[in-house]
Amino acid sequence: MLLNEIITINDKGTDAILIEKLIPYKKSLLTYYRDFFNCEPILMVTSVFNAAQYGIIVPSNEMDEALNIYIADEDYSDEDKEVIYFNSIALYNL
Question: Does residue 89 contact residue 44 with C-beta atoms inside 8 Å?
């Protein structure tokens, strides 16, 4: 997956990306999203499996809104939301 594909998918806000695909572009993504969001980007980890994790890069000051956009079509409980918040990290810690 190329950098421009990652940014296009991430900007939709409804599709999570395999975190393994983000790692090679960490520095570029960090630079791009710091300038774009004008704040620190957060990697909102949406799904965790034994072999894979999926996430979306969101602004730190709008994480609640980003989570609401992501879960708009699905039925998530408050516990599910708490797990997403717990697993999410700052992008520079990736």
Answer: no
Closest by Cα among 61, 74, 54 to 10? 54
Selection from 62, 77, 59, 57 nearest residue 16 by Cα: 57
**pLDDT tens digits for 4-19?**
999 999 888 788 999 9
Please answer whether residues 93 and 40 qualify as being in contact, where contact means their C-beta atoms are separated by less than 8 angstroms.
no
pTM of the predicted model as reported, rounded to 2 decimal places: 0.88
Percent of the chain with pLDDT over 70: 99
Task: Output the six-digit token pair for 42.
Answer: 């957060």
The HSE-up count of residue 73 (CA atoms within 13 Å, CB side) is 4
E strand spans, the chain: 17-18, 41-48, 53-59, 89-90
pLDDT digit string, tens, across residues 4-63: 999 999 888 788 999 999 999 999 999 999 999 999 999 999 888 888 999 999 998 988
